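Before the break, one more example. Copy the sequence into your notebook; we will annotate it together after we see the structure.
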Amino acid sequence: MKINIMISADHINKEEVLGKTVVVIDVLRATSVITTAISNGCKEIIPVLEVEEALSLANKGECILGGERNALKIDGFNCSNSPLEYITDVVENKRLIITTSNGTKAIKRSEGAKHILIGAMINGKAVARRVLSLREDLVIVNAGTHGEFSIDDFICGGYIIDCILKQNLKVELSDIAKTARQIYSISPDLSFIKEAKHYNRIKELGLEEDLEYCLKKDIIDIVPEYVDGKIVKIDV
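Here is what the structure looks like once it is written out:
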């Protein structure tokens, strides 16, 4: 198995992901939201790029709307991009339409991959197990922030790589994948993530509880997967 990393949604190479397993990471906060919602019983999640598309889909059936622009809740939406809002009472057996600044773009631009998995710190070990079970080369797609590199996603990718290597040493890492794992190994308590620009943007908004939640390791043991335009729980 070979593992590579793409540093933002804007850096996705379609030829590189074609036919491979992709893990999309937007740890602060879209993939943490998606993983939490699916874990709490959400029936399916539809990621879209534009607010107008989300509103249009919402008019065609019973669903809830979630997401953000510039880390803030979108007017008229039911939920923001806080994973703490996606509790069972809100999402169970519901269809969620979500649009975010970075995460949903990374998911949609990964289309063409054989499998598109949703990864975060909160389900890192489960993602590693799922990747190994698929036996395909892996591309980790960091959502980044507005097309730029993000420390938070990079370290999360490093954590997932570390989990993979602890289960299978016969893995070939690209230089950037080696770097991600090394950075994680230097800061396994995730303290270095506090240097991230996006981390501090969320902190400035008073969302410390979101940050604390998103940086918990392995509190969820499922891996959502994007299949035919929808994110669902795949039983394996």
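The chain has a mean pLDDT of 96. The domain at 2-228 is CATH 3.90.1560.10 (putative 2-phosphosulfolactate phosphatase). Try to locate both features in your own notes.
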